[in-house]
Each structure stands twice: as structure tokens, then as C-alpha cells.
Amino acid sequence: xxxxxxxxxxxxxxxxxxxxxxxxxxxxxxxxxxxxxxxxxxxxxxxxxxxxxxxxxxxxxxxxxxxxxxxxxxxxxxxxxxxxxxxxxxxxxxxxxxxxxxxxxxxxxxxxxxxxxxxxxxxxxxxxxxxxxxxxxxxxxxxxxxxxxxxxxxxxxxxxxxxxxxxxxxxxxxxxxxxxxxxxxxxxxxxxxxxxxxxxxxxxxxxxxxxxxxxxxxxxxxxxxxxxxxxxxxxxxxxxxxxxxxxxxxxxxxxxxxxxxxxxxxxxxxxxxxxxxxxxxxxxxxxxxxxxxxxxxxxxxxxxxxxxxxxxxxxxxxxxxxxxxxxxxxxxxxxxxxxxxxxxxxxxxxxxxxxxxxxxxxxxxxxxxxxxxxxxxxxxxxxxxxxxxxxxxxxxxxxxxxxxxxxxxxxxxxxxxxxxxxxxxxxxxxxxxxxxxxxxxxxxxxxxxxxxxxxx
Length: 456
Ligand code: PFF
Description:
Layout (H helix, E strand, L loop, with lengths): L6 E2 L2 E2 L9 H12 L2 H13 L3 H29 L3 H11 L7 H33 L8 H13 L1 H21 L2 H28 L3 H9 L8 H15 L5 H6 L8 H29 L10 H12 L3 H35 L3 H22 L13 H28 L2 H8 L4 H25 L1
Antiparallel strand pairs: 1-2
Helix pairs in contact: 1-8, 1-12, 1-14, 2-10, 2-12, 3-4, 3-9, 3-10, 3-12, 3-16, 3-17, 3-18, 4-5, 5-7, 5-14, 5-15, 5-16, 6-13, 7-14, 7-15, 8-12, 8-14, 9-12, 10-16, 10-18, 13-14, 14-15, 15-16, 16-18
């Protein structure tokens, strides 16, 4: 099947077609990056890790490690123009190393499947909150009511399993139909709309009287609270939120037109993603303090703060419904990125149709996801290593698999690929290229290794 691919003087084309424009690519990667990681995960992880110092380390990881890893992934993806497993095998041989680099793609396929298994469960909560918002559950509700609505919902494994099933069904449907049509349109509308709603919420947070307390929590670093485990959590969050270290961006890069600037596209995605996460923090933490909640409340944090704010706002029912609909869209466009490596691999390596691949991968993910469904109710007390089944899958993927994938990807781009190949893809040998090469060869790998070794 792969031999169908053209190879004109070293420039390949992808079996799956190409993005229609530079903007389409940026939108797709932004759609994959901006998701539950920004609005649900970032605030609670920052809260659990003490705020300020964590946020600072996270930002440093995003710029010095995240950015070069993202550029490396895109350039590898575009050069290979295949699914991440085949691309790594092909370039490994082509660059005079080994086809065993395919295992890096393999880890990515697996990481995507494991991440989506719990991501879909949380996305299911978001779907349920669309319905709860629209039916006025949160209108004028007190903090106690909002918390008990959350506890009651997540305490019912049937309810959580149902919404997990619906979300996986929606994901499979879109993946099966092919990416371009619906997705581009969805992202084009979703990211700006999400931004507007977040700004509205920011206005509310500012008027809550606790804004400065929130800002202080987020930006005043108290270094004594920061252990290596928090530094690892910051690194893991940087990888997770940017969708890097698992081949998703590599798979998207395979469909990137030759003349698009990889540096420019990466910078745009990183800026949009980081901006939305910061905005989420600035909205959530003032609300946490205004309502006497704890920033370390864990995965339920956003589901307990935002409905409270909406419940007190004029037109809150509409705002709240629209917000959770947008968040569902954000989760959905991210889910597509999470399955793309596995789906592209099944299509290319086993000759499956996109629809068949989507059903196989989706079914497997749904099944694994039942472990996370039960982690919030029936099996909530069954804990080992990092905590519940959900906690363990999250820890393993974000804090180990993604950084490890990122480490191997930068080593590959920085040391295995020759200078000509990477300069060719990045389109320059000027200062920007030199900075990338320094980061990809030295700073990012050493940084990731240092954090991994010290934390584990
Ligand atoms: N970046 C997504 C988020 O922040 O919600 C999660 C994610 C999507 C991770 C796609 C990895 C990926 F390939």
C-alpha cells in the first residue's frame, strides 16, 4: 500500500491527502492541543501542586522543551508522510540508523489509546453538564448543591458509562467519515468562541472580589512546595496540553504542505494553547477562593467552580450550556488527534478502511475506559501505585510515556537525522534553526532526562 506513495526527488506525498492550507493545519493542531487539558486538567493539576512555582515550571517546559519537541514531530511527520510507526521506521533507515525507531511510533499509538480511554470518560462528564446546564440545574445553586450534583453524577457508574459510550460513539463516527470536512469547520468556530466565553468568565472572576487572590496563587512561586514530582507533573502537563510526545502532531504533520513554515505554525499553536490554559486558571482560582473551595480538589474542580459562577450570572443557563457545548467540541477535536496515529497505522499497515480502523480502535478504547468509569464510583477505593485505575493511566501516560516519547523524538531529530534533512524541513539554517537544534539536541533531552530520573 505504501508503495503507492509518490516519491519525487525525496519529496513524498501522503496516502491520506493533505491539508487544504497552512491555516487548516494550524487549526487542526490547535484543535488537538486545546481541549480538556487546558480547561479541566491544568487548573486542578496546578491546584494540587501548589500553584505559582508549578505554573512557572510548566511555562518553562512549554517554551524550552514543548516547542522544540513539537517542531521535531512536525518535521519528522512531513518528511516521512506516513503513520508515526512507518515514518519512524522509514526515516530510521534512511538516516542510516535503524528501523527499530518504529517503536517510538508504537509507544505513541499505545499512549493515544490509553489517554483517550480516560479522556473520553471526562468528556462524557462534559456532555452530561450540557444537559444539566440547559435544564437549569445550576440556576442560583449554592456551592453545596453544585458539589452534590457532581458527586451524585460521578458516583453512578451507569451514568458515567453512558456518557463515555456516547462520546466514544461520536468520536468513532467522525474519524470514520474522514477528517477534513467537519473538523476544520468545527475548529474554526470553536477556538474563537471558546476564547470569547472565557473572557466573559474572566470578567465575572474579576468582579468576584477574589481575583488578586487567584492571580497570587497562580503566579507567586513558593519554591519550598515544589518537589521533583511536581516538576514531573509540570513536564507531563506541558506534553499533554500540546498533544506532543505520542505522534499525534507527527501524524498531522504528514499531511502538511511542503511550503508551510513549521516554526511559525508551532509558535501559533503553542501560543493559543498556553493562552487558553492561563485564561482558565485566571477564571477558576478566583472562583475557588470566592466560594471557599480548595484548589487541590482534583478532577472535579472545574465541574464545581464554573457551574457556581454561571448559576449566579444573568443569562447563566444559556452561557453555561454554550460553554459546555464548546468544551465538548474542544474535547472532541482532541480525541481525533488521540486516535489518528492508531487509525492511520491500521489503515496503512493492515489495509483496513478508515471506518473499520475507527471501529476497532474505538471499541478497544471504550473497553479500557470502563476502568476509568469505575474509578469514580464502584472501584474508587481500589488504589495502587498512583491511586485509582484512572490515576494510574493518567500518571503512566502523561508523566512517563509522553516525556519518554518526546525524549526519543528530539534525540532522533537532533542526533540521528542529518543536518541537511532537518534544515531542509525547517527551511533555514539561520538563527531560529540554530536555536531549535541546540534545544532539540541538548537542552530538551537533558531537561526531560533530569526530570524523569529525579522524579522516579
Ligand atoms: N492536548 C489535549 C488537551 O489538552 O486536552 C489532549 C491530547 C490530545 C493529548 C491529542 C494528546 C493528543 F494527541
